[in-house]
Amino acid sequence: FLVEDTRGIIKEAAKKTCFICYKTGASITCCQTGCDRTFHLPCAPDGQCVTQYFGAYRSFCWEHSPQQALQPRPSQDNTCTICLDTVEDKVSYKTMGCPACQDARFHRQCIQRLALHAGIGFRCPCCLNQEPFMMEMLIMGIRLSKRLPSWESGQEVGPPDQRHGHCDATTCLCPGGREHTEAEGPWQLWLCSSCTAEGTHQHCSSLGNSTYSWECNTC
Predict the structure, then answer these.
(1) Which of 9, 45, 80, 108 has its CA 20 to 30 A from that of 171?
(2) Low-confidence residues of the chain, pLDDT below 50?
(3) What CA–CA distance (Å, rounded) separates 109 from 123?
């Protein structure tokens, strides 16, 4: 049943076109009622789309993505609190801020990197607030990790292809073996969203195209 169900999802996704790259196989649809925009998960950043990695795992296109309601930055300092490079003078998809202190500004890529490094210790890099900062970051599509901070565990967070490259499912069903991976489809390799130390082929763990993240049994 699961195999047939997966085939049905893949067949249906094959008919849909990504509004960002214009290629078929788009399995994610904006959850806004009445919006039929579909896209590939890897294309989401280019299209300024947001996927919330908690609760119902909702996804939004650029038009319907959640927006931060922040006051003008008190310090008028247009630098990223994390990398110290210039940021936009207003909040946007690429430039985010802390809802607690209202002063911290950072690039989306910088805060995502910090979230994966900090793990359970993730908080505002400026005022050190953890709530409501963490909740706001989740709503804005920042993926959090349940691991210990990298500076305590000694584990480095890097690009997926440098961290792990094989399927750890109890029974790997891939004809090409555990180390065979593809960009999309049943043999796409998913890494654990918490520890990134284990992986699985989409088909080997019966993950549908509507699944946006996966956690290993350990996490």
Answers:
(1) 9
(2) 1, 159-161
(3) 15
Per the CB < 8 A criterion, the answer to whether 198 and 147 are in contact is no
Tell me if the bond preceding 159 is cis, omega within 30° of 0.
no
Asked if 160 and 111 count as a contact pair (C-beta separation under 8 A), the reply is no
**Burial call 184-195: b when 16+ CB within 10 Å, e when fewer:** bebbbbbbbbbb
At 38, which helix (H) or strand (E)? strand 38-39
Residue appearing with tokens 């961290």: 163
Enter the tokens of residue 118. Answer: 């900090």
What is the pLDDT, as a whole number, of residue 160? 45
Q: Which residues contact 35 (CB under 8 A, 6 or more apart)?
A: 29, 61, 63, 64
The kind and range of the H/E element at 97 are strand 95-97
Maximum distance among all alpha carbons in the chain? 58
- SS3 per residue for 112-179: HHHHHHHHHHCCCCCCCCCCCHHHHHHHCCCCCCCCCCHHHHCCCCCCHHHHCCCCCCCCCCCCCCCC
The CATH class given to the 72-150 domain equals alpha beta
Q: Indicate yes or no: pTM above 0.85.
A: no
Q: Which two tokens stand for residue 64?
A: 């319907």
